[in-house]
Amino acid sequence: MQSIKSNALEPTRSEMAGLSTGQRIIRLLPVYGLPILTVALIIFFSLLLPQTFPTYLNFRSILADKAIVALLSLAATIPMMAGRIDLTVGFGIVMWHILAIGLIVK
After folding, report:
1. Which residue of 4, 7, 54, 79 could cross-link 46, Cys pair, CB 3.0 to 4.6 Å?
2. What pTM, to 2 d.p., does this model score?
């Protein structure tokens, strides 16, 4: 089995050298769009709901809710970096959500 390194989203230095600032931003959006969107949403809701959203309790609740999925996602990173695909991580994420929903309903 042969692994192929994908760099489809990562722009090279030579590719970025000839671009204007606007073109660079458009080229980097697919790569860094999700972290930018996350920061933008945090700022937006912090300004919109300053009494409820940017609180320690809300931050702790969000972290506690997504801790298992984050750990499983980190576990999926290792085989992906090695050029392999591990489908059992997806099974673990789905199983955790089914278990959590079942416990919430009961």
Report:
1. 54
2. 0.59
